[in-house]
């Protein structure tokens, strides 16, 4: 049985029967058998189904947010924000899928035509994440279903109830049950899923798990997309409005209790404004309300996973041992549940884990730099490359700096932002492949090349 626990107080919400290797294989066989008929369904009908799914999200939004908050620990308003933001992503796929999939004639001369069409991959595994289960899941299953694939959906064991709600709404909207199937369980269920002869794997999670998945399917020549971690930097230049930059970056570091792939995890500040920036940043963070996720106004909630508390404690101890200055937080909050104080360090450097290893929690290091060259060098001193940002009034300066940074997404005067119109991808340990944008629709298809000669 899989025990679902409330991270705010450690209480048991429910227990669910887990899938087994046999049940996973059976669900795969059913999906494989059903997929050709789903692929043959007119795109207009699939779009209508997805519109009904969207309507279901709107209708049940309060209930869905409460379910997510109960098992993930995200403050209730932030769960509602995620669901409201989801609507725009669904709208993007509804608006762009038909044009993206339309066959294109790329050459027509002297009786020879060349055309490109798209066919679905087939049956895909979608191993999803707990920190934004609606966002992360929909980036995959919405375009995957619209392009004619069957989806074996394994939500994180920390967001299983949300995964079951997703399935309920999709099935009510008209997606056949064998075309979108939830697998309940942890790592063993994920391994059983990877053992099936699937046509693609789409995973969001840690680098360590992503590496294991890549190794598990190596040599099988199937589509592999891995959205992994980050150690996302931002550089604050000396010409900024300090309070505006502080407000943006503190939120970027601490929103969702720091449990975002693109959370700001390290900040570099020009030496001319460093001290003023740090003072304002600490004041901002100390103003965040720590409270039960269901309490109005709560901003900092519990960590979803209890083991992450030890990771944060290790980073705090390592930073202090190496000379960092602790300005806020630094320890667990006593009582039941997985609570950790919002934590800010200054006087940090790259010998410290807090500036090198993914934190995935409410902790940030702020480092003084002499100028642009040092900032870019430090921003690129990482195995990761998900996002990076520059804060300055000078757009040309920002573009020049961001062009030198190794990251899949870059930001000028903003951070921790994802758009359905832009591809979401990473460099290095942040993953391979992409989701979102029209490329994130095409990625669930195989292009087919047509050579057509008039007889």
Q: How many β-strand stretches?
A: 20
Strand arrangement, major sheet: 12-13-14-11-10-15-16
Count of DSSP-assigned helices:
14
- N-to-C span: 64 Å
- Mean pLDDT across residues: 97
**Low-confidence stretches at least 5 residues in length (pLDDT < 50)?**
none
Describe the structure.
The chain is of the alpha/beta class. The protein has 14 helices and 20 strands. The chain has helices at 21-40, 43-59, 61-72, 76-101, 133-146, 160-173, 187-194, 207-217, 242-254, 274-286, 307-321, 372-379, 395-402, 439-442, and strands spanning 2-5, 12-16, 104-109, 112-120, 123-127, 150-154, 180-182, 200-204, 223-227, 232-236, 264-270, 325-328, 343-346, 363-369, 387-391, 409-412, 424-425, 431-432, 434-435, 445-453. Strands 12-13-14-11-10-15-16 form a seven-stranded mixed β-sheet, with helices on both faces. Helix 5 (133-146) links the parallel strand 5 (123-127) and strand 6 (150-154). Helix 2 packs antiparallel against helix 4, helix 2 packs across helix 6 (160-173) and helix 9 (242-254) crosses helix 10. The protein is globular.
């Amino acid at each position: 049985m899989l025990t679902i626990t409330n991270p705010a107080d450690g209480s048991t919400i429910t227990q669910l029967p887990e899938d087994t290797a046999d049940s996973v294989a059976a669900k795969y066989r059913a999906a494989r058998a059903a997929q050709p008929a789903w692929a043959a369904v007119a795109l207009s009908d699939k779009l209508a189904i997805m519109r009904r799914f969207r309507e279901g999200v709107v209708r049940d939004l309060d209930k869905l947010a409460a379910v997510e908050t109960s098992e993930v620990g995200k403050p209730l308003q932030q769960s509602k924000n995620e669901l409201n933001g989801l609507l725009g992503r669904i709208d993007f796929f509804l608006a762009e899928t038909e044009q993206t999939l339309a066959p294109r004639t790329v050459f027509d001369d002297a009786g020879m035509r060349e055309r490109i069409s798209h066919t679905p991959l087939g049956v895909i595994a979608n191993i999803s994440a707990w920190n934004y289960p609606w966002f992360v899941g929909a980036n995959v299953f919405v375009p995957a279903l619209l392009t004619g694939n069957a989806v074996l959906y394994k939500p994180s064991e920390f967001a299983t109830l949300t995964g079951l709600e997703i399935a309920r709404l999709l099935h009510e909207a008209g997606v056949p049950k064998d075309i979108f199937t939830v697998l309940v369980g942890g790592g063993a269920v994920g391994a059983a899923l990877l053992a099936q002869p699937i046509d693609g794997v789409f995973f969001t999670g840690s680098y360590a798990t992503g590496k294991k998945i890549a190794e598990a399917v190596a040599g099988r020549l199937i589509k592999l997309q891995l959205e992994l971690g980050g150690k996302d930097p931002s550089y604050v230049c000396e010409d900024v409005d300090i309070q505006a930059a502080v407000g943006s970056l503190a939120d970027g570091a601490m929103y969702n209790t720091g449990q975002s792939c693109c959370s700001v995890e390290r900040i570099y500040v020009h030496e001319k404004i460093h001290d003023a920036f740090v003072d304002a940043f600490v004041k901002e963070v100390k103003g965040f309300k720590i409270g039960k996720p269901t309490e109005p106004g709560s901003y900092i909630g519990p960590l979803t996973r209890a083991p992450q508390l030890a990771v944060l404690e290790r980073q705090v101890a390592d930073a202090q041992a190496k000379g960092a200055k602790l300005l806020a937080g630094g320890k667990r909050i006593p009582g039941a549940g997985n609570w950790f104080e919002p934590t800010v360090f200054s006087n940090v450097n790259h010998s410290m884990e807090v500036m090198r290893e993914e934190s995935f929690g409410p902790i940030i290091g702020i480092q003084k730099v002499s100028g642009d060259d040092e900032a870019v060098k430090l921003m690129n001193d990482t195995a990761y490359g998900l996002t990076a940002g520059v804060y300055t009034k000078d757009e040309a300066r920002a573009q020049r700096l961001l062009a030198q940074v190794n990251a899949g997404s870059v930001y000028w005067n903003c951070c921790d932002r994802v758009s359905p119109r832009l591809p979401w991808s990473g460099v290095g340990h942040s993953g391979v492949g992409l989701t979102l944008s029209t490329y994130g629709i095409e990625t669930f298809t195989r292009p087919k090349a047509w050579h057509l000669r008039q007889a």
